[in-house]
Design goal:
It contains five helices and five strands. By secondary structure, the chain is of the alpha+beta class. It has one domain: OmpA-like domain (60s Ribosomal Protein L30, Chain: A), CATH 3.30.1330.60. Strands 1-2-5-3-4 form a five-stranded mixed sheet. Helix 1 packs antiparallel against helix 3 and helix 3 crosses helix 4. The longest helix has about 60 residues.
Amino acid sequence: MRKRGEHADGGHGEPWLMTYADMITLLMALFIVMLSVSTIDQQKAEEITAAMKQSVSKRKSQMPFQDMKARIDKIVRENKLERQVTATLTPKGVDIEFASSVFFALGQADLLPEAGPILDKTAIALKGLNIAGVTMNIEGHTDDTPISSPRFASNWELSTARATNVVRYLIDRGVDEKIVQALGLAATRPKVPNRDQGGYAIPNNQAANRRVVIRLVRS
């Protein structure tokens, strides 16, 4: 015989309360999972959108530089200078590299007569660069062979004079002087080693290191 107030389940309370509590707990867990998934998806969507915008912006900013590279490549083909002149796209712009032999005699900084037609066409291409905030660095590079002459005390003077003469030529052909600067770097930034492990000069490498670079960079 049950006493008044006792339940048939042995005094553990109404069974439906436990089921109801379990259901509420499960619903709460479901809502938390759904919220979490929604938040992650939103974050991913925002990241994807930002990445797409950045990619589109980068492509747009590179278009003038791609056009510049195409113009230089055409000049190279027309003058058969594939071994002496290269144009390379960079993350910030484009580099136009000329072997020094195209412009200068060995150890000299005066532009050779045959340099004129190439620089004239290059100046036309540079003037057609339609993009704001660009700096044009003209770099002179030498090999590591020391030079000492009445005109040039070292490779610093030689490389600076070469860069300066190219700058002056381009400005005379209408390139904006406000965006151009000359840099003489001597042998501080070789493309390839000037010498082998025994310290002997590598003539082909030294020739590759003697160069002028027109570096177009977005400021």
